[in-house]
Design goal:
Elements (H helix, E strand, L loop, with lengths): L2 H19 L16 H6 L6 H19 L4 H21 L1 H4 L10 H24 L5 H25 L5
Keywords: Membrane, Transmembrane, Transmembrane helix
Organism: Winogradskyella haliclonae
Protein name: Rod shape-determining protein MreD
């Protein structure tokens, strides 16, 4: 088994377990929740099989949905994020992504912040739209998406930097 596959399997399991055991029990002010499982989608290798990536994103979201009893909203948001991730990669990293030489461990901190922030905000807008599914509740949707995104981005960047491979 190659090391990239093993590290991605371990990342998948650890993020899923951390999400369902720790993060799902955090509920600040009734609407602020961290969703750190998106780190798996964000850090998945760029050069890998796209179909496999979409299937893994779906399975990760589905497993989170099973633990939260949330009816598929996490699976939908995860697949949608995995599908549009190349747009965020191109916007944040530019030519590194174009030439397939992108390594998240060696990337510039500003580009990493832009990438993580954009992806998390997009994921949360889709997630909470699917959860609320009522346009008359747009203020609640935006409030939940904004505050949960701030918390998730902060926690995600902290975890990514903490477990970043040493140069």
């Amino acid at each position: 088994m190659n090391s990239s596959l093993a590290s991605n399997m371990i990342r998948f399991i650890i993020l899923l377990l951390a999400q369902v055991t720790i993060c799902n029990n955090i509920n600040l002010l009734g609407y602020i929740n961290p969703y750190i499982y998106v780190i798996f989608i964000l850090l998945f290798p760029v050069k890998s099989n796209r179909l496999l990536f979409l299937i893994l994103a779906f399975n990760l979201g589905l497993l989170v949905d099973m633990f939260l009893d949330s009816g598929g909203v996490h699976a939908g948001a995860s697949v949608f994020l995995a599908f549009v991730r190349p747009v965020f990669l191109k916007y944040a990293f530019g030519t590194l992504y174009d030439h397939q030489t992108l390594k998240f461990g060696n990337s510039e901190f500003g580009a990493l912040i832009m990438y993580v922030s954009g992806c998390v905000i997009f994921h949360h807008l889709i997630l909470f739209y699917l959860e609320i599914f009522n346009i008359s509740q747009i203020i609640l949707l935006l409030k939940k998406a904004l505050f949960s995104s701030i918390f998730t981005v902060s926690l995600s960047l902290l975890l990514i930097l903490l477990f970043r491979p040493r140069k």
